[in-house]
Amino acid sequence: MCIRDRFLVDNAPADLPVPVGITKTPSPDETPVPTQPTTTSPAVTDETIIDVPGILGKSVAEIEELLGKSTEILPMMVGDAEELPDGGESRTYSQGLYTFYLFFDKNGEATGFQLIEGLGESYRLDQSGELLKRFGFSVFKAPDIEAPAASRWNNFSGYKIAVFAKGINGPVWSVQIWRL
Question: Is 24 in contact with 7 (CB distance < 8 Å)?
Fold first, then answer.
């Protein structure tokens, strides 16, 4: 994390949510209070946008404690998504420049994630491995399915992952991750 970003995090108002995986640096005269870790993925770094393995499987309440309230809640009916066979809901969250959906099953457990805004023109499809590190993964194998504008891993360490580009040779615009 650069010095400017560390300054912004350290000097943020107490009620401002800090991105998952980032903590304030205690001042020398401040004794840090132990907190429950917010991430479980060994691949989390300062470059992590959001630790997806660390949030999938959590309840709505646990996630909203970490990320704040969602900006939109949409019901998902039976058949709306293959990954939610009994339906559930989609909730929209924002963290800094990034906007994403979290998908919850009927029991209120997060089972899926989709980034929908914030990547800009930063990554190409052939850089998917580097991009997925920013979501708490270390992808070292080729995708199971490659197309001119998408790559998919059917089962990478218990997750189905898809990366979508804006057309052939276009920048990546979305990342979708489902817990299997």
Answer: no
